[in-house]
Each structure stands twice: as structure tokens, then as C-alpha cells.
Amino acid sequence: MQYKNRLTLAAVLAASVSAANSTQSVPSSCSIKSDATASSQADLDSYSGCSTIVGDLVLTGDLASAALAGVEEIDGSLTIKNATQMTSFSADSLKKISETLTLNQLTVLDTASFGSLEEVDTISFVTLPAVSNIITKLTSAKQITIADTALESIAGFEDLDEIEVFNVNNNKGLASIDSKLKHVKTALEITFNGQSAEISFDELEWANNITLRDVSSASFAKLSNVNASLGFINNSLPSIDLSTLEKIGGSLSIVSNEELTELDFSNLTSVGGGFVIANNSKLATIDTFSELSTIGGALVVTGKFGDLEFPSLKSVKGGADIESTASNFSCDALNKLQQKGGIQGDSFVCKDGQTSTSVKLTATGTSDDDDSTATSDSGSAGSSTTSSSKSSGAAAHFNAPGSSVMGAVAAIAYALL
Ligand SMILES: *[C@@H]1O[C@H](CO)[C@@H](O)[C@H](O)[C@H]1NC(C)=O
Ligand SMILES: *[C@@H]1O[C@H](CO)[C@@H](O)[C@H](O)[C@H]1NC(C)=O
Ligand SMILES: *[C@@H]1O[C@H](CO)[C@@H](O)[C@H](O)[C@H]1NC(C)=O
Ligand SMILES: *[C@@H]1O[C@H](CO)[C@@H](O)[C@H](O)[C@H]1NC(C)=O
Ligand SMILES: *[C@@H]1O[C@H](CO)[C@@H](O)[C@H](O)[C@H]1NC(C)=O
Ligand SMILES: *[C@@H]1O[C@H](CO)[C@@H](O)[C@H](O)[C@H]1NC(C)=O
Ligand SMILES: *[C@@H]1O[C@H](CO)[C@@H](O)[C@H](O)[C@H]1NC(C)=O
């Protein structure tokens, strides 16, 4: 693999950067006035006698290169923005930035070197079209956002175990992300990058929520828990292997993945929110949810699948909408589950190639209710209506306004799209 340019936060010093002049006068105060902006090397040199500077250092202007020498800690933020002539920057003594490191709108920057940086609260790298590689030695960071860069790979952050937010978006040349993160406390989002990004998070044990879009492969070898939601939206990946995953606290959404043919969720026992598998045009078999026993929201599966199996499913709390256009799909198993009271919520719809079942359920259904409280779609009291209606659409679904199934689908779609 070739890296044209490097954004190096490791112990690699950019040779082209001239070292700061250490004979400059030491300022009596190493604190930065708010709203002060550095725009020349001399401005930066005025801090070279400070091992710690307090305040927010903002660098901008027409410099071709710049260096912050001597400073080991910034008790505040470091922002370099709109320096559209700058090709290189270095701050190789800097160990800690208590707040945010921002590199923004540096259109020709190809080398940034933070050779000692281990600790930073937030990293924001946005609009760096000439930077194509990142390497870091960071051991502590809360949030990392990398957007609109020319990065081809992100293999850095190797010493980082835990983070709150890891957000990589709109890096159109991105081909791979290889991460050793173990825990993501808030959100892992990889979205709108190059269509062919291959990502691997093989040390990840749990994440609060995960959203992936536009990735061509994803590997999560140790993921056992997603505390909130997990979404695979509009990816080009052929398979999703999450066989180590045991629990999803919120919703699971697998939507509009055109190349998807294989799923493995063989250890998943519960989904706390909605369960949505929709618009994956090549997904014909959904039979790996062998341990799944409870779904806390709605169950929505639409597509061309012939095979849909939930052998352990006991309870779906938010209704169900199952629609297959495959003629050999059968609703029998789901109809049985519904008749046993396993599907609560306010509506149950199941359509296969030939028939459809549509049942309006009472909102208070419990697993003991059986079908005794179910009413038909037309609103008259009675049992489930099963109509033979070759795609006539007679069994129109969701007559009930505010149906929880639609509510859940809409909520998930809007959260993720
Ligand atoms: C960026 O800097 C240029 C001058 O170098 C200035 O004209 C422009 O307004 C600045 N843009 C922003 C967004 O600050
Ligand atoms: C997520 O779940 C893991 C494993 O159950 C737990 O250790 C962790 O504290 C949870 N994280 C959040 C943010 O709730
Ligand atoms: C991710 O989790 C946080 C906290 O639980 C939540 O506020 C946020 O909406 C979630 N994002 C998505 C896309 O689900
Ligand atoms: C999926 O991605 C393609 C290509 O990036 C885009 O044209 C399309 O609108 C996306 N679809 C959805 C549902 O986001
Ligand atoms: C599935 O779970 C069982 C027991 O919790 C475990 O022994 C097994 O290794 C898991 N399978 C995978 C592929 O992680
Ligand atoms: C599936 O695609 C159809 C048509 O493209 C769209 O109307 C529907 O909202 C999609 N479903 C989901 C869950 O995204
Ligand atoms: C349904 O038909 C498709 C081909 O049309 C076939 O590949 C699939 O195995 C069938 N599924 C079942 C459950 O018979």
C-alpha cells in the first residue's frame, strides 16, 4: 500500500519542518487571551518557553509551515484552521491537550506531526484533502471525528482501547479501517465514505451503538454486546457475521444492503428494540437467528426471502410486519406464534407470495392472551382473518393509525437515515 502523504501523530518527525527558534523571549504569562489568534511562526515561538500553556491556541493564516516547539501541554484546545497554504505542521513536544485538537480546512496540508501526543479529549480532523494516512500513539481520547479527508486507511489509534465517539464520514478515498478499540461508550459511526471501505474492529467487545453505511466488508470478531442500536444501512457487503453477538439492547436494522446474501447471528438471544430486515434485494435466507427469543419492539422483515426462521422466538412486544414476495415463503410458523400470543403490540401482518394474514391486536396483549382478544382488520370482533389474495393487496396493513409497527419503523428509519 502506498501512502502519498502522512498525518503522523506518532514519533515520526516531519523533516521538512524547520524547528522553532529557541532564543525567542519567554512570555511572562503562558496563558492565551480568549479570541487571540496566532498567524505566524513568531507568534508560536512566543510560547516556546512555556511547558504548559493555558487557553485555546488558534492558528490560522498564510503560513506555509509551522511548528509549536517546547510546549508539552495545552490546558485548553489547539485549533489549526483555514491555513490554506500550510503544507506541514509539527508539535512534537506536545503530550497532552486537555480539550480539542482541531485540524480544519487545511487544503494542502500533507504532514502533521504530533510525535509525543498521548492524551486528548476530542480530535476533529475535517476537510484535509491532502492527507492520506494517520498514525497515532494516543492512549486516551474521548471523541474522534475524521471527515472529508483523502485518507486511504485508518490503522492508527492502535494504543487506544476505549472511546466515546468514533465517527468517520465522507472520506471518499477510504479503503480500510483497522481498529483495536475494545469499547465504544457512545457511538461508532462509519458512514458515507468510499463505497469499498473494508473495516475491522476485531478487538471490539461492546459498543453503545454502531451504524455502518457504504462499507464493503465488516469484521467484528469479538463483539458480544451492543447496548443500544446496531444498523447496517446501504452497504455493499456480501455478508454480516456477528456470531459472537449475544445481545442488542436497542434496535437491529439491516436495510438496503444490495449485495447481502448471508447473515450469521447465531448467538443472539435478545433484541431490546425493533428488529428490521428490509430491502436487501439478494437476501433469500434468514435462518441464523436460532437463539433469538425476545424482541422488545416491532418485528419487520420485508424482501424476497423464501426462508425466515425464528425457532426460539417467544415474544415480540411491538407487533409484526412480515412481507415476502417469494412464492415459497410460508407464514405458518409466524401465524402460529401469533395465535399463541407471542406477538403483542397492535398489529400483525404476514404476507407470502399467495396469502396474507392481517390481524389487529389489542395493545394490551400479553403472552397469555392467546388469540381471544384479537380483532380482525375490519374492526369487527373475531379471530384472525386469513385471506387468499394473490397480491391483490386486499389485506391492507396498518389500518390503525399510530400503529406501533409503523411507528417503530419510522423511528428507526429516521434515526439511521
Ligand atoms: C479563510 O482565510 C481567507 C484568507 O486567507 C479568508 O478570506 C476567508 O474568509 C477565511 N475563511 C474562513 C471560513 O474563515
Ligand atoms: C454495554 O454493555 C457492556 C457489557 O454488558 C457493559 O460492560 C457496558 O458498561 C455497557 N456500556 C454502556 C455504555 O452502557
Ligand atoms: C446512539 O446512542 C445514543 C445513546 O444511547 C443515542 O442518543 C443515539 O441516538 C444513538 N444513535 C443512533 C443512530 O441510534
Ligand atoms: C445508497 O447509496 C447509493 C450510492 O451511494 C445512493 O445513491 C442511494 O441513495 C443510497 N440509498 C439509501 C437508501 O441511502
Ligand atoms: C456462542 O455462545 C456460547 C455460549 O455463550 C459460546 O460458548 C460460543 O463460543 C459462542 N459462539 C460464538 C461463535 O461466539
Ligand atoms: C424499502 O424500499 C422502499 C422503496 O424503495 C421504501 O419505500 C421503503 O421505505 C424501504 N423500507 C425501509 C425499511 O427502508
Ligand atoms: C425458495 O425458492 C428459492 C428459489 O426460488 C430457493 O433457492 C429456496 O431454497 C427456496 N426456499 C425454500 C424454503 O424452499
From TrEMBL:
Region (Disordered): 361-396
A Gene Ontology cellular-component term: plasma membrane
Domain of life: Eukaryota
Keywords assigned by UniProt, alphabetized: Cell membrane, Cell wall, Glycoprotein, GPI-anchor, Lipoprotein, Membrane, Secreted, Signal
A GO biological-process term: fungal-type cell wall organization
Biased composition (Low complexity): 373-396
Subcellular location: Cell membrane; Secreted, Cell wall
Broad class of the protein's primary localization: membrane
Protein name from the UniProt record: KLLA0C14454p
Source organism of the structure: Kluyveromyces lactis (strain ATCC 8585 / CBS 2359 / DSM 70799 / NBRC 1267 / NRRL Y-1140 / WM37) (Yeast)
Source taxonomy: Eukaryota, Fungi, Dikarya, Ascomycota, Saccharomycotina
